[in-house]
Design goal:
29% helix; single chain
Amino acid sequence: MRQTSSRGAMPLSLLALATAAMLTACGGGGGGGNGFPFFPGAGNPPTNPPADGTYKAEIRRTAMGVPHIKADNWPGVGYGYGFAQAEDDLCTMADSFLTYRGERSQYLGGDAQLVASSTIARPKNIDSDFFHKQVISADVLQKMIAAQPDNLKQLVEGFAAGYNRYVRDVKASGKAHEACRSEAWVKPITAEDIYRRMYAANLAGGYSNFLPNIANAIAPAPAAPTKMAARSGAKKGALQLAAVNVPEPELQVGGKEGVGSNMIGFGTAATGDSSPLLFGNPHWYWRGPDRFYQAQLTIPGQLNISGTSFLGIPVILIGFNDNIAWSHTVSTARRFGFYELKLAAGDPTSYMRDGKPVKMQALNITVNVKQADGSVAPVTRTLYKSEYGPMVNLTAFGTPFAWSQTTAFAIRDINGENYRTFKNWLRWNQAKSLDEFIAIQREETAIPWVNTVAVGRGAAKAWYADIGAIPNVSPTQVASCTTPLGTAAGASLPRVPFFDGSKSECDWQTDADSAQKGAIGAARLPSLLRDDYVANMNDSYWLANPKAPLTGFPDIMGPAGTDPVTFRTRLGHLLAQGRIDGTDSHGARGATPDTVKRMVLDSRALTAELFKMQALPLVCARSTINVVTDPLTSEAIGRDIDVSAACSALQDWSGTGVAGARGAHVWDEFWSRASRIPAADLYSVAFNPADPIRTPRDLKPDAAPALQQAFGAAVARVQASGFAENAQRGDYLFATRGGQKIPLYGGCGGPGYFTIACSENRLDKGGYTMDGNPNGNSYMQIVRFPEGGVEAHTFLTFSLSDDPASAHNADYTRAYSAGKWLKVPFSEAEIKGDAAYRSAVVSE
């Protein structure tokens, strides 16, 4: 094993090879039956290292530390990628492998929460452990592995080996990642750990939103009620159903608002030259296991892909190669549904299906839990799966939704049975044209919970699609299979199938072209090709381009003309149209890299543009407002609030969230409260599906009292924060690196910012800091295909490394703060010519 370096990098010492610990499959045993057995521990997948038994990769780093990994084969490029990710983000990765193995409680205690937010939010460790051992059981893991093509298996094997190599190096050297390198939980992994991590990424649109409900779905003990008691119970259930009030669950990836994203694909009619142009910008996690990592992977003649993936994923998920570029946004399509099960008499773990009892699959799962004295004690739960999926505890929905002697509930996630996702992405990594890219998407129909926009070299049109794994339920089934409880829950679970599990006629359907059982076929899913532009900002497929609304698709895909779109969606389309027409402030018409770079960072807030001058006379008629309660938090205020300074600040405010803007926080706090006023009471012009980008609009004068309460409460929050009403944006919207604040810009989607920096932190609790669990602009890319090359400009807003001691912990964030895009090197000449170029060969 050796590592060599060039151009300013010191050679690293030779380190002895260590034997990787072999980890057993998660999950557990459990009774068979009904044709879907659970296998015992699957063991490690067979490895296929290169013929000479070695791994070898060259890791070339350029500005901002971006690694360009080059190898002769798939195991080699995986090896380099695993090494590079670990070198930059070891602590986050090692922590996440505990999550996917179900070992958090063993090392960190059962009651502690996950360190950072992600697609599973921040549950308790013990719930996370039971969830992952239940959902990624041994049979699921085996199916996941078996479904992968050989090149992907080799990537995974190499990635695990490269990660392990870095773990050995850092533990031996005693340098870097001081926060975790000596911890017992920072240890070697197996390929199975990577497959678990990959599979878990599938579930963000379904199971992940119900993690505590699945982890705590405990069956009641069998009982033998009398006939009289059973009749009494049925009557009581009917009374409860009449009064049920289901709380709104978090159905979107990342929570109620969703973490979101923006993307626009400009065709050649918009760019004015022979190349289309892609802007992609996920608003994603800045910390934790789902944060993005930027890299380029190259196997000469086989692979040359640049872009980003989640930590622990060996395939580029958003990016570009020599001929195509694509991005994603979270889709509105539901990817899951519930089944209400009628239980067999006297057995709450058997359910009836077409008149016959079916035994649930029992998994006796043990989680080791660290105790207060440092010892470890086992905790065992028996969790169950049905043929639909895991049992789920919906007691929070109300008493009728509890697992009783007669009724239980299962959840089915279409992506729980979708093992094609990373095959799809790997094929995209290698795609040679937009036509091939589209054909792959239709063939695999595998994308798990996101929309796609793509452009290609030589292609005049840009592509939009929400073609992926989506439950196939017919309108007839929705009418005949939705249970009374499902109907009661419908307002809180819009477009989520909630079916009767006792009838096979309520099974999700399969089309002739379905890629998996129970999924909609590609021919019935929405897509659009346009030579002006296509876009998505997390509203439904309906308005990929307002000039050509998409309609007639299954209801489960999302609203089409029935609901207003968000202000962020409206602004995104206005930005695209303004750039094409040249009616914005960025110069002559046409989408060029320079104009789009400026356009997407200009931090406009659409609600301010629409409503500021209408609102000020309504809320600033008096210098004080008596505020009763805060409409946002329901906290009692009960006093007069002096709003004169806030009114003055808003009068002078530019209406943007640029770092130097003064007064933007007053508007943000105001609009977060004003938006809670019912639309019928707030707007003079209601939403019109024939004019979705310009409606609703105009504030009703009659809304003045409610707007005054919202404004007074907002000003009270600002005054409590210690930030002046005319404070600059960058003073209270910031990221901290090395104890220094880096000023930022933009805002949340609610007020209609397109440039996103959305803190979960209250203004009066230290400002809108991006140091906790925020979401916002993350990996940003602008890509076009000039003749003979690729032109790409990128940001990784939170920087590449999680290690505070790393040179790449803050450099990209500072560049983002200054608006200095990185023209990322792609060709061999560009990589080797980069001023920050350094190279190291890792091998074993």
